[in-house]
Structures are given as structure tokens and as C-alpha cells.
């Protein structure tokens, strides 16, 4: 059985399983060069076919596969089992679940669109879709601590499920201004020494002693660690 994927423009792709959206561009790698006929239904995929980084839908919810472990039967007549480490893309919860090899999953209606951060208010965090120019809003419960990475006009990827925004994918690094940090102590030249700095969004990171207030620094969006001066 062949897994189906959905490209960024909503067309279905056939011939390769869904693959992870890249962090920097939000595009799928190795997209096949041919499409399902118009009106064709996407194929189901069996549990045994699911690979790491694939997306699938289970009981009406989209999931991202983080890891796969296959257990083949040792006794005659036993069943092959597939243990998936999966992330719920709606709640962000991560857990393991075991399925039979022949259990089937559908393709989630997942797309990503380029967007720019606009502002935050009581209604949530607002982004401008760079294709349609409509405003997309994500609640505080969806963004969580990632709000500390948001600055005006930051270019991100918004992930949609069934047409509704459900998450944001950040670039590998963001540039933020140092709002407060203690000045370096004269004579303190210890190799690798760091100090705490509070950035313009409220994010706190460890920075080298030479960094001062007003400097712009690059921060890893996954680890929230100092990545150099901008």
C-alpha cells in the first residue's frame, strides 16, 4: 500500500510517505513529481508503513511520528506489533502507543503557510499569512513559552489542520536585543565564563561576558541558548 502526502498547496501527492516539515522552510523534502487524479481519495497507510517524522491521523487527531519500534512475533501465528512514539499536534502531548501492523491511518489535512508575526493582545498572538494576507490567530495555550521568541515581523511557518491554525514553526534562530545584563567585571577573563541576560521579550539566556545591554544576539529557537551576536 502506498502512503499519501499533501503538498503545501493542498494537492495530494502519491508515491512517498508524508515526511517532516523542515524547520527552516516548512517544505516537505523529496516531494514526488506526480499527483493523484483530481477527485481521487488519499490512500490509507498501515501502521507497519509508518516511518519516523511522518504525519498521520488517528481518531480524528493529527500526529507526528517521533520514533518507531517494530516487534515481530517469535511464536507461530503471533502478530507483528508497531510501537509509535507520537506527538499530538493539537495538544503537543507526546506518548507511546502500540498498534497492530495492519491497523490503518488516514492522511491528515495538514498544510503550512508562511506568516509574519504582527502583535499580541487579549485575543491571542496574531500573524499575517504571507500568501493570502489574512490574519491568523493562535491562542496563548498553543504558543505557550514560545511567545518569548516572538518579535515584530518574525518570519515563521503556521501549521493548519482542516484549515485551522494549530501551531507555529520557528526558524532555527531569532535575533533579540539584550534589555538587561550585568556589566563584565574588570579583570574577569575566565575562559567560557557567562552571565545571565534578559532579552527584549523577557527570555533569559546565558551569554558571554562581553555581551552588553543594547547588543543584538542570536538565540537557538529549540534550545533557547545563545548562538552568537547578530
Can you offer a commentary on this structure?
This protein has 230 residues and is mainly β. It has three domains: 4-105, SH3 type barrels (Roll), CATH 2.30.30.30; 110-169, Beta Barrel (OB fold (Dihydrolipoamide Acetyltransferase, E2P)); 173-229, Nucleic acid-binding proteins (OB fold (Dihydrolipoamide Acetyltransferase, E2P)), CATH 2.40.50. 2% of the residues lie in helices and 45% in strands. The protein has one helix and 18 strands. The strands form five sheets. The chain has a five-stranded antiparallel beta sheet.
Task: Provide a compact summary of the structure.
The protein is mainly beta and 230 residues long. The chain has one helix at residues 140-143, and strands at 4-6, 12-14, 45-46, 55-58, 61-71, 81-88, 94-100, 104-105, 110-121, 124-129, 135-138, 155-161, 164-169, 173-181, 194-199, 204-208, 216-220, 226-229.
Ordered list of secondary-structure elements with their pairings:
Layout: E1 4-6, E2 12-14, E3 45-46, E4 55-58, E5 61-71, E6 81-88, E7 94-100, E8 104-105, E9 110-121, E10 124-129, E11 135-138, H1 140-143, E12 155-161, E13 164-169, E14 173-181, E15 194-199, E16 204-208, E17 216-220, E18 226-229
Antiparallel strand pairs: 1-2, 3-8, 4-5, 5-6, 6-7, 9-10, 9-12, 10-11, 12-13, 14-15, 14-17, 15-16, 17-18
The whole-number mean of residue pLDDT values reads 83
Strand order in the sheet with the most strands: 11-10-9-12-13
Coarse structural class: mainly beta
What is the helix fraction of residues, given as a range? Answer: under 10%
Low-confidence stretches: 1-41
Count of helix runs: 1
- CATH class value of the largest domain: Mainly Beta
Amino acid at each position: 500500500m502506498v502512503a499519501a502526502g499533501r503538498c503545501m498547496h493542498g494537492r495530494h501527492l502519491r508515491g512517498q510517505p508524508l515526511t517532516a516539515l523542515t524547520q527552516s522552510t516548512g517544505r516537505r523534502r523529496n516531494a514526488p513529481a506526480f499527483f493523484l487524479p483530481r477527485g481521487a481519495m488519499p490512500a490509507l497507510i498501515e501502521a507497519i508503513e509508518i516511518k519516523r517524522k511522518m504525519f498521520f491521523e488517528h481518531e480524528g487527531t493529527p500526529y507526528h511520528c517521533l520514533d518507531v519500534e517494530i516487534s515481530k512475533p517469535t511464536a507461530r501465528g503471533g502478530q507483528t506489533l508497531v510501537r509509535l512514539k507520537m506527538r499530538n499536534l493539537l495538544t503537543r502531548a507526546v506518548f507511546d502507543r502500540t498498534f497492530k501492523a495492519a491497523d490503518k491511518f488516514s492522511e491528515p489535512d495538514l498544510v503550512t503557510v508562511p506568516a509574519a508575526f504582527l502583535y499580541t493582545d487579549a485575543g491571542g498572538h496574531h500573524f499575517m499569512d504571507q500568501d493570502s494576507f489574512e490574519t491568523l490567530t493562535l491562542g496563548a495555550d498553543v504558543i505557550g513559552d514560545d511567545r518569548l521568541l516572538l518579535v515584530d515581523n518574525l518570519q515563521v511557518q503556521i501549521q493548519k489542520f482542516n484549515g485551522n491554525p494549530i501551531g507555529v514553526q520557528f526558524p532555527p534562530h531569532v535575533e533579540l536585543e539584550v534589555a538587561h545584563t550585568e556589566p563584565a567585571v574588570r579583570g574577569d577573563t575566565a575562559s567560557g565564563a557567562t552571565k545571565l541576560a534578559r532579552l527584549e521579550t523577557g527570555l533569559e539566556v546565558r551569554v558571554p561576558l562581553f555581551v552588553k545591554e543594547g547588543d543584538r544576539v542570536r538565540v537557538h529557537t529549540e534550545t533557547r541558548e545563545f548562538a552568537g551576536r547578530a
